[in-house]
Amino acid sequence: MTRPFTFRSSAAVALRDRTLREALGRAVDTALAKRLDALNELADVEDLRDQARSVRLEVVNNLQTYLQRFRTKAQAEGAVVYEAETPESALRLVTDILRKRGLTRIVKAKSMVTEEIDLNEYLLGEGFSVVETDLGEYIVSLAGERPSHLTAPAIHKTRSQIGLLFEEKLGIPYTDNPETLTAIAREKLRGEFLAAHAGITGVNFALADTGSIVLFTNEGNGRMCSVLPRVHIAVMSPEKVIPSLPDLDVFMKLLPRSATGQALTTYLSVITGPREDEEQSEPDELHIVIVDNGRRQIAASEYHEILTCIRCGACMNVCPVYRSVGGHAYGSTYPGPMGIILSILLFGMEKYHSLTDACTLCGACDEVCPVLVPISTLIARLRRARNLAGFVPFSERMGMKSMGAAFQSPRLYRLAQQIVASLHPLMGQKTQSPNLLGRLPTPGNPPFHGRFGR
């Protein structure tokens, strides 16, 4: 039986970490300001969002058709395409590709799907050398942590923490200068790129009409992983397919602006097949592993719109819960508002039902989503499903029924106000408890109804 994750306990620990909250606050405020400035440069941003949603829904509603089209085109261009139903089968496929060719040194670019299937841990356990080369991923891998954000894996760390980490793990003198720390990481990674036998990357989009894969990156590592080693393995989920190259234009405008506040991503790579005879720098082999892990079931469900998500991370930056507790408090590969939905659908309601507590239903995530995913609506559906599945504690169910009764009766409502006001001082003594009762606001005295009546 899967042991359930308890978000409230995890969040209580994160809320007591003042350094974490300060680091998150600065980072997400900067990201939101840059995003707004970048989107204001577009005169037709709402039209672009409508187009993006339409394209993504077209694919999700006809997923098998576009997948087959992509596979046929990619293989015609010389790529080898595999489909893995489960994480276990994906891990075996990647391992077999490497082992049959005697490839042991691996460099990786950032990929959430490989995090989802625990690829790094599996390969390390099988005797391979695996190095994350995205700077944020490199930092969290040195710390023995998971990414805490989709586009900024080390968003939860201060530069002084990174300096201490580099001093401990890399044996260099302490510095908290960002440029110096970046230069140190670049020097360490350069040798890894040159010595690597294979590169593993994710995929931002896959083009059904050309069989190409598309990588959006802001560091040269993505291109180094996909060009320098003689074998390139790209791991993707099926919903990353879009119909055609012209459709990419709308996402080129929306994804960088929503993710990092840039008008254009620094590196945009469109990769079609392996190296041809006259080319000098492409890999000899391109392998594309498509990991389903339940996504076809999601595509056929009432939650199918979550598969239109393009992993920009904007919903996390604006979410009041994520801003307070960070990504690790979610206990899952996918944090934040979109992560609540994906975690439950991919890994099970039994394990992650408490993540539905990690949402105020304020709707801010809906407002910033570049492809108009109705995130808060989907979370509300999951809350109902959680209740129907019996995962809500008895005390909470009774409390909600009592609250419903009180809101329907003025007399009971006034009585409840009096009870809450008298109990609040006792609740204030429980600030450190996992249920966070001590964070309740102080009741008004007199309450609003009393003022209004006068």
Describe the fold and architecture.
With 454 residues, this protein is α/β, with parallel strands linked by helices. Among the domains are: 42-295, 3-Layer(aba) Sandwich (Rossmann fold); 405-453, no CATH class. It has helices at residues 7-15, 18-40, 45-61, 63-76, 87-100, 112-116, 119-125, 135-142, 159-170, 178-195, 221-227, 245-260, 295-299, 314-318, 320-325, 336-347, 349-352, 364-368, 375-388, 394-408, 410-427, 448-453; strands at residues 80-84, 105-108, 129-132, 198-201, 205-207, 212-217, 231-236, 241-242, 267-271, 285-291. The strands form 2 sheets. The chain has a 6-stranded parallel β-sheet with strand order 1-10-7-4-2-3, sandwiched between helices. Strands 8-5-6-9 form a 4-stranded mixed β-sheet, sandwiched between helices. Helix 2 packs across helix 12, helix 3 packs across helix 12 (245-260) and helix 16 (336-347) packs across helix 19 (375-388). The termini are far apart. The model is unreliable at 430-434 (pLDDT under 50).
